[in-house]
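Lecture 7 notes: from sequence to structure.

We start with a single chain of 122 residues. Read the sequence below before looking at the structure.
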Amino acid sequence: QVQLVESGGGLVQAGGSLRLSCAASGSIFRINAMNWYRQAPENQRELVASIAPGGNTNYADSVKGRFTISRDNAKNTVYLQMNSLKPEDTAVYYCSQDIIPTGMGYNANRYWGQGTQVTVSS
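Now the structure, written as tokens:
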């Protein structure tokens, strides 16, 4: 059974930094894309950043130049380094990984972390 566990959220003042981590465990054959989403109260969940197996990245316009997504394939872990945080970055952050479990063919399933709260005070 594949599980994702997130860590690293918290409370920070505007201009500060946080680093989120999301580690996958279980019987894993391959991991394709890794992503970070966020959802603020009364808002839809939005894609913040994504990273392909080879390292290509994409970012939402609102976080470009401030956030950096990275991955450690040996550890099945994706990171989100968040710098110059703003109050509007306050949200629950969710990671997702597109994982092919061992012995389950070659189609990936999307797995989600439990979410971690990031609160930026002004």
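Residues 28 and 101 are 4 Å apart (CA to CA). Keep this in mind for problem set 3.
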